[in-house]
Design brief:
four-stranded mixed β-sheet, GMP Synthetase, Chain A, domain 3, 21% strand, alpha+beta, 143 residues
């Protein structure tokens, strides 16, 4: 009886260790991003090849350890004069409308990142920047 208890206890301990190690096997968001860097570079290159027609360039990166950032920088011809009253509000309205239509896409991306990484509070962040780097708009997808 004592040997059976030891055997059962040893099996449970081994099973517990196996689950613990399996949980440790997922990379952090930054490591996952680094591993998939070539795919992200292809996305950037594809968007940036069309920058003249899109009016912006794209840069993807990880920020704060848990945010996958899509940073859109407007080209000089599309720069926003932030000194004009209501310009940022109008721009935010346009971006909100545009990104509302893509909510499912960003939510699916977040779900995939959650599955593939050990980061539990993943954020998909969209940022719009003026050519000088001034932030015009930011939105986080957390669900």
């Amino acid at each position: 009886m004592k040997n059976k208890m030891k055997l059962v206890l040893a099996a449970l301990l081994a099973l517990t260790m196996a689950f613990a190690l399996a949980g440790c096997g997922k990379p952090s968001l930054q490591d996952w991003y680094n591993k998939n860097q070539s795919e992200f570079q292809e996305i950037e290159d594809s968007v940036n090849a069309q920058s003249a027609s899109m009016g912006c360039t794209l840069k993807l990166y990880v920020e704060d350890g848990n945010a996958l950032v899509f940073a859109y920088t407007l080209l000089d011809d599309y720069a926003v004069d932030t000194s004009v009253d209501g310009a940022l509000d109008s721009l935010a309205s346009i971006y909100d409308s545009m990104f509302d239509q893509q909510t499912a896409t960003f939510s699916e991306l977040r779900t995939e990142v959650l599955k593939e990484t050990s980061t539990e509070d993943v954020i998909i962040r969209l940022i719009a920047l003026n050519p000088d780097g001034t932030e015009l708009y930011s939105r986080d997808f957390t669900e």
